[in-house]
Write a structure and sequence with these properties.
Blueprint (H helix, E strand, L loop, with lengths): L3 H9 L1 H11 L10 E2 L2 E2 L7 E6 L6 H10 L3 E7 L2 E6 L4 E4 L10 H14 L4 E3 L3 H4 L3 H5 L2 H4 L18 H11 L11 H12 L5 H13 L8 H13 L4 H8 L3 E4 L2 E4 L10 E2 L17 E2 L3 H21 L13 H6 L24 H8 L1 H5 L18 H9 L4 E4 L9 E3 L7 E4 L17 E10 L2 E9 L5 E10 L3 E3 L16 E6 L2 E8 L2 E8 H8 L2
Parallel strand pairs: 3-6, 6-7, 9-12, 12-14
Antiparallel strand pairs: 1-2, 3-15, 4-5, 8-9, 10-11, 13-14, 15-16, 16-17, 17-18, 19-20, 20-21
Helix pairs in contact: 1-2, 4-12, 10-11
Length: about 550
């Protein structure tokens, strides 16, 4: 809501809004050149600057590398147990969600982000991702009452028909440990391991937590017991002092800063305007439920989604475990919000752009528009599971522009070793997808050397352009500047490179600019191809 006034005034009183923004966002030098053996900063003195990163997933070292290149954040202090950051004067920062799961830095990262948000509540925005919200399952599903239930009564994940049942998993554990029955292996520890591996997509997280607890307790990993790990997962999300609980309480589902909308997943025909009902269940529904609210006004929509999160967190705090019949629990609606099929394909958190390392392609569009799949949308919520949203949708773009939005920035779905962008030339709305968490699957962390730095810079919050810099997974640096966006539909092509964020022959997209070369990319599914073409050759081949 902090940006509510700016977005509304931009639409209703554009001249007054611009004057007000020029006063509020008075020129400051948050982006002065700064270089040292460990830092590479851009050479820019634009008066407005916003930094963005997403899907850190516990990778605190990756985050530190981002901060080293950032023109927005600085490290105040960094010890093994605590990272303290500072926000440069007048700058803004948005974290796009998914703070936990894939590295031993979950607790410290959440604490650091929450501390920054609390010190700069009007200039720092934290978003919830699916990996943040789905942890509220722990309190109910690892409770003493649930542990006493027959293991055959514990349902498999409704969104993944290929996942093994709890019984199948426990039978495997029992066999490996020489136990006679699956019930003999039914401990809280194994329940948690099952949840992490087969329902949350993070099989290594249990041991990552052991490593982080050893760091925080200043002891060896051998001194951290399995039960301590279970206790930690529950404490961090349930207790008011827990790092993830505090993150969720300080985060939003969506944020608007000037002409830019931030969500974790995607804004598409299904998610735009839609706010779920507060009684939505985390289950596979048998029919499409009516919306709780439909908002034509975008700021009302953003506020309503954020209120939905607040109400859901209060519900979770009041009822953290199942009722006696195991039919409902607190926070159920939040679990549904991050689960595509539970909200019948209308999750602004888990719907996503991107396929094959690019923001869209023929494969994604063909699957989205496949008549056999589309015919099932009113009958089966599972048909939304592998869909990629259309960033070029003219109806969505018109709604966004009508509400003063010229850019949407998201994460959630990996897009190769640098962010994927749809140029504003297509619809007047620029789409930037910044998740690079699978940039190098040959690396132990799946990230390798790749590092994206996304910043929005310009005169003010409603007159600016996108700059994406960083490092490919081969170690080379890149820096890409996109067109200036201002007004309701204005594009200044004298700022930025017209080739960036566009598609050329052969299904390639121009993703980045690197030392007189363009990085071209195409792919399908998880397969990604790159081709680095000299700019002169590119212009000769494609006429751009």
């Amino acid at each position: 809501r902090e940006a509510r006034y700016y977005a509304l005034s931009m639409l209703l009183l554009p001249n007054i809004a611009l004057l007000h923004l020029l006063v509020v966002f008075a020129p400051f030098h948050c982006a002065l050149a700064f270089s040292s053996p460990r830092r590479t900063r851009t050479m820019s003195v634009d008066p407005y600057r916003l930094g963005y990163v997403t899907d850190l997933e516990g990778h605190i070292d990756f985050f530190l590398s981002f901060v080293e290149r950032s023109n927005v954040l600085d490290v105040v202090s960094n010890t093994p147990k605590k990272l303290e950051l500072d926000l440069r004067d007048g700058c803004y920062f948005v974290f796009g969600g998914d703070s936990v799961d894939k590295a031993p830095g979950d607790i410290r990262l959440c604490r650091s982000l929450v501390s920054l948000k609390r010190r700069y509540p009007d200039r720092v925005f934290l978003l919830v991702g699916n990996r943040d919200l789905n942890k509220i399952r722990f309190t109910a599903e690892l409770s003493a009452a649930d542990m006493e239930r027959d293991i055959d009564e514990i349902p498999s994940p409704h969104w993944d028909p290929n996942a093994p049942s709890l019984r199948t998993y426990l039978e495997q554990v029992a066999k490996a440990k020489g136990m006679a029955r699956a019930e003999d292996a039914n401990t809280r520890v194994e329940r948690l391991r099952y949840m992490l591996k087969h329902t949350l997509g993070c099989p290594d997280t249990f041991e990552f937590r052991r490593q982080e607890l050893a760091i925080l307790k200043e002891c060896g990993v051998a001194n951290i017991s399995d039960d301590q790990i279970c206790d930690s997962f529950i404490f961090e999300v349930e207790n008011e002092e827990g790092s993830l609980r505090q993150y969720l309480e300080n985060a939003n589902v969506a944020a608007v800063v000037g002409n830019t909308l931030f969500v974790h997943g995607a804004v598409d025909l299904n998610t735009m305007r839609f706010v779920p009902r507060h009684d939505t269940k985390f289950e596979l529904p048998t029919k499409r439920a009516p919306p709780g609210k439909v908002c034509e006004d975008l700021i009302e929509w953003v506020d309503s989604l954020n209120d939905y999160l607040r109400v859901g967190m209060k519900d979770y705090q009041a009822r953290p475990v199942w009722d006696e019949g195991r039919t409902t629990r607190g926070g159920e609606a939040l679990l549904a919000l991050q689960n595509r099929c539970a909200v019948w394909g209308r999750s602004v958190i888990s719907n996503c752009y991107g396929d094959g390392g690019v923001v869209t392609n023929d494969h994604a569009v063909q699957y989205l528009q496949d008549p056999n799949r589309a015919e099932m949308e009113d009958k089966d919520p599972m048909v939304f599971e592998n869909v990629s949203s259309d960033p070029k949708d003219p109806v969505v773009a018109a709604w966004l522009k009508k509400n003063g939005i010229r850019r949407v920035v998201v994460g959630h779905k990996p897009t190769g070793d640098c962010p994927a962008v749809l140029s504003s030339a297509f619809t007047g709305v620029e789409i930037a997808s910044g998740d690079t968490s699978f940039s190098d699957v040959s690396a132990s962390d799946n990230r390798g050397l790749a590092l994206p730095v996304i910043e929005i810079v310009g005169e003010n919050a409603v007159d600016n352009h996108l700059e994406i810099s960083g490092r490919f997974n081969d170690g080379r640096d890149y820096h890409s500047t996109f067109h200036r966006l201002y007004g309701k539909d204005d594009i200044d092509v004298t700022v930025g490179d017209s080739a960036l964020g566009t598609e050329v022959d052969g299904g390639y997209w121009v993703k980045a600019s690197c030392t007189e070369k363009y990085r071209l990319c195409r792919g399908k599914g998880r397969k990604v191809e790159h081709d680095d073409v000299p700019i002169a050759e590119f212009r000769a081949r494609f006429g751009k």
